## 1
Amino acid sequence: MSQIAFNIEQWHALSPGFETPCAWKNWCAENVTPAQTAFATDLIPAMMRRRMSSLSKIAVQTALYLKQTQAQPFDYLVFSSRHGELPRTVDLLQQVLQDEEASPMAFSQSVHNTSSGLFTIASKSPIPATSLAGCESSLHHALIEAAAYLYENPTHKVLVIDFDAPLPAPYDIYETSPAPPLYALGLVLSAGENTSLEWQVQSGDIAKFKPASQTLSVIQQLANDSCEWQIDDHRNHWLWQHKGHSN
């Protein structure tokens, strides 16, 4: 079994219709249907916002919200997403298949590190950043990356942003976990032991595990102020222990 530890100094989750811990708590308790299809993007500069995908907007808005609450700048960024800008990539592929000229702007924003780059531009913050994908456990791998950085830099702060959206057609036939239209979870982390995460490789029948959004599960537990919870996927068993947070 492997283990990491860190402090969650603040968290913020965003999805259409869910923008506060109270809204997320209601969703957890009642499975409330979103009352709106839009979400706040007011922190993103207007000229930049017009060209961004919804996925990038929700990730960057979440990151900018957390940045404005901090007295000191972040030292490191970790952005994680299972699928990334796949909808934009699919649009580009369809343009190519139809012998149309692909948009250079769309191409430049179709890479996996689009959102992290846009955040550094929008915030005018030249911060080192890592963008990663780790299948269904992308958030957990982002936390491992952040914890490794904090181990080497215990006085620093790390911003972790995990975000995703349902698969676009024609890949939507492979979508197995129901989720809000799109979502982002932001975590401000520092060195400490307020939260621990242990994991070990699954040894049982992996076919019994039904894929689900691990990020939404973590949001649910944070919104409910849970102290301990477990998450299973096809590869690992994840055990969380959380002593509390400030928001």
## 2
Amino acid sequence: MPGALADTPVGATVTSLPSGHPSPRHRWWILAVIGVAQLMVVLDATIVNIALPSAQKDLGFSDGNRQWVVTAYALAFGSLLLLGGRIADLFGRKITFLVGLVGFAGASALGGAAGSFEVLIVARAAQGLFGALLAPAAMSLLTTTFTDAKERAKAFGVYGAIAGAGGAIGLLLGGVLTEYFDWRWTLYVNLAFAAVAFVGGVILLQRTTRDKTAKIDIPGAVLVGGGLFCLVYGFSNAESHSWSSVATWGFLVAGAVLLAAFTWWQTRAAYPLLPLRILLDRNRGASFVSVLIIGAGMFGVFLFLTYYLQQSLGYTPIRTGLAFLPMIAALMVTSALATTSLIPRFGPKPVVPLGMGVAGAGLAWLTGLDLGSSYAANILPPLIVAGLGFGLVIAPSMSLATAGVGAEDAGVASAAVNTMQQVGGSLGTALLSTLFSSAVTNYIDGKNPKDPAVLAQASLEGYATAYWWSAIFFATGLIISVLLYRRGVPTADAGPVVHM
């Protein structure tokens, strides 16, 4: 197939689209539509964070319940992604994309109008549910729209930049809306995103034929949905409970057991939810692991640097969001550079590990921040370094994770990438939050806990601990990506089309 990236071993040929299916004429407009939808889904993981104090005061829920505003979204989104990806493959990507947009907008409107904590949680869970339809459909549309290798690289460079920058954009937008309007607008703003993407989708997207003989793997959906739910829930509980609590390790063990059972079932199901052929290619497997690791490590920047800027340095929400913009710019530059120039020239083996190393160096650099640090001299340089590293990892790994997948599996492969990112984010949040709390407690031990200077320094110790562990995540990613990625450049497949 002309232009398809083949990242499979010699002798194994796969393709993303059968030859003779040219890229749609308006493909760059389609990329814009997909980008708007993806930005909405990604930024919704963080846009509500800054609004939480205002929402808590308005609706009167406790500190203990506060985490569920974030966790309800992550639980539904993470546990239903694979099912959403297979629905997109079986019932058509266009209709799944549009249904996801309408549902996400409706859930956002419900959350914005919520008069109680319970309604807000239901709305956030519904956002996650429809996001699980929308995200894999968007990514698989990108995979099947851009069939030329060079154009596909550019498209995934843009998509990867959006995926990486969405969290920071969410912080900035959340700060603006909360400070100048009301916390409810952090949810209402999704109506504008969804309307633009819906109109563009109706006009530009092509309807795909569905395989009426195929069926959804219900046992597989129950097993993987339950397994991912238990993992995300267990990691979320680690922040509010100890790791020794049955509410933490019990759910993690249950999740591991259910996912093991799911893997076994996929080898026997007539219509598997996640065909294991998708995971068996070395480059693709390495890309899935890379997405998981960067999902975990990036929280060291987004979560704890946000707290540092606002609580330690007294930044406003808007100023905090603006502080991340140079990192976003660096990420976008290296995302485009990696997919259009570096991967086609050198292959993923040197590029992704380099990104892991650069990102780890940026996180290690952040450990030196203190109460007297200035933005220009002390915060900006490591932020830019981290952003350069993120871009070298995100766009190439997302592109290679779906390259060479058969068109009938594009949705579920895209869902698997999103699942890795979501589980990685949950893992990173839980681990880093627990390590942060332990470092703060250890520093205060034996000191006056009511002394503001002691509390301020304790927070710095916690932030530094989180940055160090994030750097360790990326160092681990460097080693794994060096070992797993194959040497050489992924080449276009000139041979016959074989769907594996």
